[in-house]
């Protein structure tokens, strides 16, 4: 981008959303300044640095340069920045909400009597903690950028501080030029939403900002840091100033999903599905990935009557969700968008009509169809632990299977159970809890149930080998379900 173009963008911009002097420790005023303005699509950053001792160093840290910090509106929105990490997998924990390695080490070292009944679960839950706890800081929710007076490519610092994630600037996310002045240098940059690294899924209305200018000085002298905060600290979101944008940014986050990246009024059903999507998105080069952090206390329940949980300990697992391209599932006014996350692949199903957006999130769909009135529908099959968790003892490893209809209505998905059974007993029940058949067992053939259509969209067939076939029917609006045995 040419300097003239950047100048034009700046001149067309509204009054800055952010403007502040850059002062060093002990200074009350400074001629160095920084301004930031949003035009609704991108940010325009203007930094004027007074530096009378230009450095020839080319190091990205120990040289003259500008560092820009961006952060989410709520510090620690994703997870605490100060945590305890352990070996060998780099797990992340807090103990009673604090980064206290001594408290975690005390739990790791607990010993139990050899004859204690729940010893296995107690030991297993502590083994989940790892070893050698130590403090660390993560930067989830923050971006740390470097811009230089010689105009070299921008730098994304601290990429190792995003455990489990792979942040990367995309081409064109940060475009800037630097100009030497009589008193130092001037940086002007156009920043796309990707330069923030992390953005809320409904767009950027408020963010946190800090701008630092590092003066490396002459060789052998101590560098000077001037900042828009009077007491800047590395990686501390509290030293970033909260800025409300007059023109919020509306990034395009997922292909085929323009509803993301901007605040929109949605019907209750669509709102429910969109609320279940990751709350934030992370820039990963050419694309965005949904990001959330799972929080869970270490738990073990290998023995059914024992369930050991370390309630004071919270484990943090950052997860990125990758979105695939949209494809119609029952016509051009519908789209299914796959979302892949560790251990939790799922799909967002959408139906669009003028003024009528419908959506449902599901990882269990086996068939898609339309009801007779044209409403999109799905058939889901879920397999869940019979006791809510797999454990020991009779039927401890049993699975309950549920087959149900999903009708995508404007007020939300309407789910109707067709059949349910478990692999520890023999009754097959309909949605009202009535026994419609007994699960067939045979040593001679595979009775694993298969779900197909007898009449597409109207009559569903569930076949248990050659021994049993059930058919489910329903009224045009999805009500009045009937299940009959036809073999």
What's the topology here?
Elements: H1 3-12, E1 18-21, E2 33-38, E3 43-50, E4 65-72, E5 82-87, E6 91-95, H2 101-108, H3 119-127, E7 131-137, E8 142-147, E9 155-156, E10 174-181, E11 184-191, E12 198-200, E13 204-215, E14 224-227, E15 241-249, H4 268-275, E16 280-284, E17 287-296, E18 299-300, E19 308-309, E20 313-323, E21 334-340, E22 346-353, E23 356-362, E24 365-370, E25 376-385, E26 399-409, E27 412-422, E28 427-430, E29 435-438, E30 449-455, E31 459-464, E32 468-473, E33 482-485
Antiparallel strand pairs: 1-2, 2-3, 3-11, 4-8, 4-13, 5-6, 5-7, 6-20, 8-9, 10-11, 12-16, 13-14, 13-15, 16-17, 17-20, 18-19, 20-21, 21-22, 22-23, 24-25, 25-26, 26-27, 27-28, 28-29, 30-31, 31-32, 32-33
